[in-house]
Each structure stands twice: as C-alpha cells, then as structure tokens.
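Record format v2
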Amino acid sequence: MAVIDESGQAYDHPLYTTLLHVPGLSVAVASLDQLLTWGAKNALYIFPMATSCCGIEFMATAAARVDIDRIGSIVRATPRQADVMVIAGTITVKMAPKVKRLWDQMPEPKWAIAMGSCAISGDFYRDLYPTVPGIDTILPVDVYVPGCPPDPTALMHGMLRLQEKIAAKQAGTWRAPEVRPETEKMHGPAVRRIDDPERDPAISAEQSRQAGLHSFDAPEGELDWRGAEPVPVQAAVDFNTLLAERFGIEDFPADNAPIVPRDRHLELAQTLKAMDYSLLIYAVATHYPKPEGDTFEVAYGLRNPSMGGKLAQWRVILQSGESIASLASVFAAADWQEREQYDLVGVAFDNHPDLRRIMLPEDWQGHPLRRDYAADTACRPWR
Amino acid sequence: MQGLLRGLVYGGLIITVLMTATAWGMWLERKLAARMQSRIGPNVVGKFGLLQPVADLMKLLQKEEIYPIGADRLLFDLAPFLVTTFAIATAAVVPFSADAVGADLDVGILWVLALGGLMVIPVWMAGWASNNKFALIGGMRAVAQSISYGVPLVLTSLVAVVFTGTMSLSGMVKFQIAHGWLALWPPGPGVIAFLLFYMALLAESNRIPFDIPEAESELVAGITTEYTGMKFGLLYVGEYVHTMVGSAIAAVIFLGGWDGPFHIASGLHWMVIKTVALFASVYWVRWSLLRFRSDQLMRLCWVYLVPLSVGLVIFAALWRHFVLS
Amino acid sequence: MNARHPGPTTDRYRLEQMDADADLMVLNFGPQHPSTHGVFRIKLILDGEVVVRAIPYAGYLHRGVEKLLEKLTFAQGVPIVDKNDYVSPMTNEQALVMAFEKLLKIEVPRRARWMRTIFAELQRVASHMLWLGTFALDMGGALGGGSGVFIYTFRERDYILDLFEMVTGGRFHYNTHTIGGNRHDIPAGWDREVFKVLDLIESRLPEYEAMSSNNAIFVARTKGVGVIDKDLALGLGLTGPILRASGVPFDLRRDAPYHAYDELKVNVATATAGDCQARAQVRVAELRESIRLVRDGLAGLPAGGINGGKPIKMPQQFKAMAGQAYVGIDTPRGELGTFVVAGGGDKGTAPYRCKIRAPSLHALSALPWILPGHTVSDVVVILGSLDPIMGEVDR
C-alpha cells in the first residue's frame, strides 16, 4: 500500500509493487490494500519517547482506567517493532539527536504523536537555551495532543484521530492541513562536532580544557570519600561560635550566611565533617557581573543529621579569575554538585576529581546561569 | 506415494491448525492478562477483539524490513524461519488422538527432545546476527538457560520413558490408559516429575519467571531487538508455537493425552482441552510472577532441579523393576 | 578505594587501559531505555554480564528551570517547579514557596499549614504507589507479573489524583500553593472522599505486598543487592527513604518540623541493611504512616483563612531585600530544598539566583559506587530502588 508522508513522498512496499504488475489483480489489490490499512490502523504498536511528566500520563493511559490495549495498541520498547512514536515530554538539545536517531530506526510506515505542550511547542521552556521549540522542527508529527500534561483520555483520543487519519489517507480523502509558519529547521552546527575533521583545533583545545579532559593524562589520585583525618574539636559547638573562635569571623549578617575566606574554606568543611555535619546539602554559585570584573559567590550548606538536621551555611567570595578548593575530597556529594555549578555557572574548582560538564553537552559554549548569558541563546542545529 | 500424500495433507493441516490456534492463543493471553489486571483488553477490533491477531498479522506484513549495519544477513534472515520451523516440526509426532498423529515414531520422545534442543541454535543466531549488544546478551542468556534446563527436561522425560517402558508418544498414552495418568500415579513422584517438566517447559519457551533472554526491562527486547515486520512476527509466533506444542507434549506424557478422566468420552477434544489449559496456565504464571536473575536461574536448575530429577529417574527404575514387573 | 565501592564517577577510564585484551564490553544503557525511569544514560563496562565500572550521564532533560525562575517574579515561579519532580508536584511547590516565604518573611496561616501537610502526605502515598508499580515493572517486565502490580498501583494513584482534582481543578500539575498560603480551599465533603480512598488503599495494601515485597522472587532479587552503607549514604548526601534504609534515622518532618508536623507526630521508619529490599520496606512503611497522617490531619484540620493576612493582588508586590534563604523539606525522594538569593533594590521582584536541591541527583550519584560487581539485571533493580525522577535531576 502506498503511504504518503508529510513531504508528499510515497513509500511502496515491494509486495505491493509486485502485485500491481500481475495482470487482472487490480481488484484484489484494492481489497488487499483496504485489508492492510485496516490492519495498520488497528495494531498500532507504540514506542514511548517518554521524557518527562507526559511520560507518567502515558503510563496512566496504558493502565487500567483507560487501557490503550483495547484498540490493539501495545507498548514496544524497541523502535524496530513500533508504528507510532509518542513523544511525551520536553525534548532538549542534548536529547534531540537521540530522538531523531530513534525515529530513523523505526520501520515505515510510521507515525508520530506529539503529546503535551512541551513536545508540541516547547511550552514555557520554549525560549530557553536547552530546549527544542517543538518536536516538529526535527521530525514530522501526525497528531498533536495538547495539554500539560494531556489527560490519559486525551491521548486515547489522539490515537483514535490517528486511526482516522490513516484510514482517510488510504481512502484518498485526506486533506493536508495548512502549512504552519516556517519554524527554524535544521542548519549546520555552529560549532563542528568533536569527530568532524573540519573542526577548529583551537576550539577543541579550549573545550577540552574547559571539560577537564586535560586531566586525562594526569596521574590518578586516590579519592577518599570518607574524608581527611578528623580534626579534634569539642562536640556541640555552635556554628557561629566556631566561626568566630577558630576562623576569626566577625560579621554575621541576619539575612545571609557568613563569609569565609577562600583559603580556609576547605579546613572549615573538614572541621564541620568531624563535628558530624556529614550531609552536604547544597553548593551554589552565584554570578555578579561587575565592570571591574565578575565576582562569584559560592554558598555551601551542611546538615547535621544527629542534631536534628541543624544547618551550617557559609559563603565564599571569588574575585575574577579565582578558583575555589573542591570539597569532593571531604564529601562525595560535592562531586556532582560542584560539577553542576562548574557547568552552569562556570566556577573553577581546584582538585576536583572529575570536572566535566554534567547537564549540558560537552561541546556547549558558555555557562547559562551567568547573569549576562541570554536565556534564549540559540544552539544549532536543534534550535 | 500414498504415504507422501498423507504426509503432505497432514503436514498442511497441522501447520494451519497450529498457527491458527497460536494466533488466537495470543488473543486469549491478552484477554486473560487484561482480566487479571482489571483491564478489558482488545475489544474494538471485531467482536471481543477476536480479529486482533489478524490485524496484527496484516500490520506486520507491510512493515519495512531493516537490516542493521554490520548484521549477518543470512543468519539474520534464517533465524526466525528456523525458530518457527523447529517449533512446528515438533508437532509432527504429537498424537492428538489414537488416529490423528502425523508420524507415530517409535522414538517420538527423542524427536521432541532433539528438536527442542535445536531451538537454541536459531535463537543464538538471532542474537549474534543482529549486531546489537542487547541481542547478544539475550542470545548468550538463552544458550545458557536452554542448555541448563534441557537437562531436567530430558531427565523428567526419561522418568516417563522408564515408567511406561516405551519411547513412542502414543505408546505412552496407551500405557496411561491402561495404568492411570503419570501425573497422578504413582502419587508422589509422578506429580513431581510433571511439575519439573512444566518448569523446564517454562524455561525452554522463555516465559516468566524464566524469560531472561527477552527481559524487556533489562535488554529492551532481547534477541528480537533488531527485528522488524514479519521476521519479528515469526520469532514471536515461534515462541508461542513452542509453548503450545510443549503444552501438548506435557499433556501427552503426563496427563494421559486423549484419555478422558475415568476414560469418559476419550477423544481428540480432551487433548485440546488439556493443551489449552496448560497453555493458559503458562500465561497465568507469566502474568503473576516476577523474573529471576540469570545466576539465580542457573542455581535453581543445577542445585535443585537436576538432582531432583536424577532421584526421580532412579525411583522410576526401582518402581518399574519391583512393582510393575 | 575498597572492593565494594571501587571508584567515584569519572569518564577518564578507557577500555584499553582497563583491559589490554579487551575482554570487556561497553554497554550504553539509555538515554532511552524502558527501565531508566526517564532519559538517563549509564555507560556500563561489563565483564560478561558483571558490571566492572558504571559511568552515569545526566542532563538529557536539562530544561533550564533555574534560569527561567530568574526571569519570572516570585509568584510566577510556582507552576514552573510543578514540572520538576513530576511524580510529586505538591511538594515541589511547597519547597519553593516556603523558601520564598522565608526570604520575604511572610507568615502562613495555620489552616494553610495543615492543608499543606495533608497534600504532602497524600502526594507521598501517590508517589510511593507509583514507585512500587514501576519497581515491580523493572523486575517483572512490561509483559509479565510486574505489569500487574504496576497497573494496580496506577489505579490507586488515579484515585488520589482525582482527590487533588477536586481541590485544585488540575489532575497532575496543581499550582495550588501561593506565597503566604494556599489558593484553593478544601471543598465541602472532600474529607469523606479522602477517607473512602484511603480505606480502599489500605485494604488493598496487603495484596500488593503479597505480589511484591513478600514475594519470594522479589526477595531473591532485592536482598543484599545494591548495598549503600551508612557512611556512603551520608557522604553522598542521600536523604529520605534511601538514607533511612541505610540506618540513619533522619527525617526533616520529625527533626526539624515544618508545616503542621510539630503537632502531628511522625514515626520515622528505618532499616539497617541498606539494600534494595530495605529501601522497599521503608517506603511501604512510609506509605502506611502517610495514610495515618492524612487521617489525623483531616480530623484535626483547623478553621480559618488559608492565605496570608493581606490580600496580594499583584505579583510585583513581593519585593525582597538582598539576602539568601534556604528551605528544605522531606519529599518522597528525600530533602528537596530551594536556595534562593535576592538581589535587592530594583531587582527585588524576582529571585536573583534560585537553585533547587534535588534529592534524586544525589541518589543517582551513588550509582558508580554501588553498581560494580552486580549484573545487568541488578542494574535495573538498583536504579529502580533509588527512585530517581529525571525532571528533578536535570531540572
């Protein structure tokens, strides 16, 4: 049977073309065509491209209340055996190449359902740097199911609409909808991918440096996540008293955490760890652009689970070009926390075991949570 | 010449009946599973969703065929074909009633076990030829599992052979008509042998809790990961046919074949009832239990099932020697 | 580095360095895989089926929520964070508005605090229900016994979503918390519906336990698998059920009470084994405890207003002085915190920097420590037992 895709290209199964060349079979072929369409319409196996919230509602659609199995649709985990890709959730720039690849792995004839406003248009993430503004910028979508997230019944309705569309295309009554305003389609990548021979080696070197790949050749250090030797201090010392007595800090603002000198920050962490402040809760870097040079403020928070979760919070101020000692040698949790801050804010951490980007692709340029980074910075080819 | 004609007719009949039965067996499984999960299951395509298998078939027929990069095309194509062929060929020796038997071999049970053992080769071919790591792991698991569970399968069949004193499947049924069903008699060991055979059957046909070669939650789709269209359909159906034929053989060896309870109204229909009941029970187990890990599976087989079946064989020999003679 | 925890997260290892004969195999698990609970990738280096090293990659759902929060005013941020931990949106909203309330120094009326408690605990029931279902799905497969548990727990979860729909009008994302109180009051007769649903769930719980945690195969698959000992759990900043399953009796609801938890006493479930089974046991115990808390909360719900003293008309009314605030609350996945910095002056209407402390991020960072030595089948189980939600990990 001839399936006409969005671009007007017809795909013919070899069986179909063979049959058409046998004389006198046109009636049989026509009925066979109807039979095949009926089969295609009633056995839509789903490949769930479930990334976020809509994925949960997709699962709810497969569960007892709506039961998508009623119309003969089952979920296959491999794209090779699926007919419909249900894109449920936000597609990010990092994920988009994978989605496209999975789509290409699906055998024809195939259809796509964009479920939820993120997949349709990007929703309120639309103008943000890491988000693809609608999945139809990278693959043809047959049915849009709006909602945030759509009710399970709405997805079921979407499946039924897809069945109608398949039948209408076979019957020749399908009218293509009006062409939507041209969205930004794929372009060549602004920065060539790592394996591209035309890639500028200067960029590679800079990115390798930023990604911490230079440490690849460095001798591997033992990371003792249990921390250094405990520093003997009296138990149950108040945090502020400790700061005042041992670290000579005098300024305790009411609405803010005390500022600890950069060179004593690691020592403070070790001291607190010895005092049972064993949970690293957060490590946050804040960017303050200033004409004389950017300033960063890195805030840390520790909890003491044996003292009712008492919080110890402090800040370290970094002038332009300065780096801060990593706490990864004291708290294993600092590893990912500091990687995230390095990735998004661009603060350098000394002696971090593995300072790479964590959220964004490795070849990303810039640090989006800096105040001077435009939120809608385009990222080719997916935005 | 007459024998050839008979073979052709019977062969065609058995393929048609078996494939049809399997197709609606799949429908039965879907409905059963749905009812177990407080769902409805297929009910839109045809009355009670009865046309669902036809729709699935029509859809699979028209799908594009994809060969993954680096796949071994010959093996990739051959595997689904062989899986189905072996599964159906096993059915040739199954006596569905006193008359309805394709080839009443004197060594019917050997034929069954040999073909069952061969099943692992196309499965491994599928895993290897796909050039996909998930399929490869699935294939490796299938080989390990099939070889391991082949041992209790053979040993429990041997129990039946020793008890009945024949290797012909219809001979076994005739013995059971005379002396009572093997699963019920002798009271203890007979039912244990039946349960062991049943477990090995679950493992041989890759059904939960022994479905680690497919394990969708771990290996995406196991050996079938890269298969599309009708080749996937054949692999998929092959397993169902395997389960169906396995159920029929279990019914013949242990449940008296076409013999009715207390010899009431013996005939083909009893064989059908027993086979479908066993087939459905496989899916009852499948939709109730969780899955073992591969090493636990091997442990269960080699530490518990194999010694137990060896013990049963010895018991059967003693019983045969002292009680029946 | 000891044998059980052979190494931290790093991508510096190359196969050729680890094994000259290259008997090892790299298996990319994800980002789109039926059991990764979203889009998450683990690079597994396998020796046969045994994991030698595991390298996780997050960020496939990084949507720039923190940047978006900087662009919006304080009051506009609430519906945004709904989508972070999309399995328990209520607690997301609470963590955000509580941090803003602390920063802006706004008192919450007592009735609103009790309502928030009820919502949080109902959400915990729904979230743990979903976890139980997906955990069984990981172990039993979509075409097997696991999907039975999954479908039953989703059925129960749908009842709770219906309850939320009665209050807020939204089935999934609620946007019911505002800075200084709640937006929607509880409708008349809602408590009767809640009691009905809770009775139903409680009566069916033994059934699910029989199918999952009391099932012999379940025990065989989870006992002794993925052990996180106390030191590792603390070092990695794990919180919530995972920490409590490792033998640390720490629960913010009891130890640093917020909402109405100072009046409703919380019993904290802990286990010492630290394996997947212990985590399952703790979560099921929490389920029962949450059902009790909802009942007690509804019985003692005080009357009064549900919003801060003065009516708030415009979001721009909120203006924060320069400063920072951190509030963490105990969600079904652990301590979900919001760290907010206010710029002060004319920038005071929006957060200057807002960081969401996601418990799932810490949970996933445990993977390179605990996966080595387990088989591929266990990877799925361990990942499921950590109950990660990628929307929250990547934000």
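Residues 66-324 of chain B form one domain.
Chain B touches chain C through 32 residues (CB under 8 Å).
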